[in-house]
Every structure is written in C-alpha cells, then in structure tokens.
Amino acid sequence: MWKKLAITSLLLWVISISYIGYRVMYGTAEVVDKRTQITLNGEDRELVLGEMRLLLKGLKGILGGLADNDFKKVQKSASGIGMVMAVDINPSLMSKLPMSFKTMGMGVHEAFDQLASEVYQMNEKQVLKRVDKIMSSCLACHETYKIIEEN
Fold first, then answer.
1. Max CA-CA distance within the chain?
2. What CATH code is carried by the domain that includes residue 95?
C-alpha cells in the first residue's frame, strides 16, 4: 500500500514540477501576426506597459541631460530605469511572461545600470551609441511580442 502511495506522490510531484517549469519558460504566450502574443489581465498588462512608459521617460531624461551637457542628470535617469525598476515585480505576473521576454527586459535594465556606472568616463557620442544599442533591444521586444488584455 505504501509503495502505491509513494509512486502516486512521486508522479504528482513530477507533473507539478513540469507544469511550473513550462509556465516559467513560456508563460501565457502564443504566436500571432509574426509576434508572440502575451495575454494578461488588465492590471498586469497595465503594469508591463507602465514599466515601458517609465523606460521612455528615463530615456527622455538621458537625452535631455546630454542636450544640457548635464551628466549628473544622465546618470540619475539611467540608474532610475536600471535594475531598481525590476526589484518589485509580482511573481504571479512573472509566471505569465515567456522566459525570452523576461531575459530581454532584464538585459535592458542591466544595460541602463551599466550606462549609469560608466557615464562619467564617456563623452556624449559614446553615451548616444550606448543608448542606440539599448534601444535595439527595445525595438526587438516590440517586434517580437504583442501584449493583449484577456477577455
């Protein structure tokens, strides 16, 4: 009797771990119109889109700092959209996002942290080149994913 219980428990454990692993890797994504569609509830969708808007706001601060030759503003704007933004993400939301989306997003935040730490060793042109490289990731994300609200 105990052998059947142990085998059943092991089987349920394997199924549970497999499901959790699948959710962590793929989230709720499906492919549509050449992009991967990520379906989120209204609150989660707004959180993701709100984070993207904050990235744009930080980017505006970086460009404004460069225009004013104010590297302190550039550094502050870049660090404000670095990993500090990613610290407080809801685990439930993270389980709904595909791993490639999460990896891309974390890479962008890390790149802004890197820029913030090196900005005083760079000139305007070098900062612009770095921002251009970071923006390539942003464009790739928007070309790869489509975030919709579930019905």
1. 77
2. 1.20.120
Q: How many domains does the chain have?
A: 1
The CA distance from 108 to 3, in Å, is 50
Give the sign of the dihedral formed by CA 91, CA 93, CA 98, CA 99: negative
Q: Kindly report, residue by residue over 27-38, the tens digit of the pLDDT.
A: 665 656 788 899
Query: Which residue reads 């993400």 in tokens?
Result: 89
Query: Where do we find the tokens 């889109």?
Result: 49
> In which domain, by residue range, is 6 found?
2-149
Surface-to-core class of residue 134, CB atoms within 10 Å of its CB (0-12 exposed, 13-18 middle, 19+ buried): buried
**Roughly how many angstroms between the first and final C-alpha of the chain, as a whole number?**
46
CA distance 21 to 3: 27
Token representation of residue 94 = 């993270």
- Is 0.85 surpassed by the pTM of this model? no
